[in-house]
Amino acid sequence: MGARYDDTNPEAEKKEYIDHIEEIVQWMGWEPFKITYTSDYFQDLYDLAVELIRRGQAYVDHQTPEEIKEYREKKMNSPWRDRPIEESLKLFDEMRRGMIEEGKATLRMKQDMQSDNFNMYDLIAYRIKASLYS
Questions:
Q1: Using CA atoms, how far apart are residues 72 and 61, in angstroms rounded to an integer?
Q2: Any idea where the Glutamyl/glutaminyl-tRNA synthetase class Ib catalytic domain is (predicted)?
Q3: Is residue 68 domain-resident?
Q4: What ranges make up the beta strands (E) of 6-132?
Q5: Among 88, 77, 70, 80, residue whose Cα is nearest residue 112
Q6: What is the pLDDT of residue 131?
Q7: Residue 56: how many CB atoms within 10 A of its CB?
Q8: Is the whole-model pTM more than 0.85?
């Protein structure tokens, strides 16, 4: 069994959380053959996100969390969902380079907004976090 720690939000992570998880795993008698962190794969994840945009399967959205909730409840597409691919690519690059403020844009995956599973309505794949990773 491998273990992967999601360290994508530096404001919410503490060493004590990892230590506690490791204690529980040891208590259960398990020993991971490999330990990784999501941040180990940031470039790969970024490249995959760019590919999703290029294929028309993701877009940069500017809705607030409240607007996203409202649109999801009504099973409505975001007004930004059909923006041109090149525009989303440019904006996603700007998100990465810190040119867009935290909370002003997300990258969302295009999914079925009419599905019975509301948890799958255009999931947010990337947010802007203005914190440094250690």
A1: 14
A2: 4-131
A3: yes
A4: 34-37, 58-61, 106-109, 124-127
A5: 77
A6: 66
A7: 12
A8: no
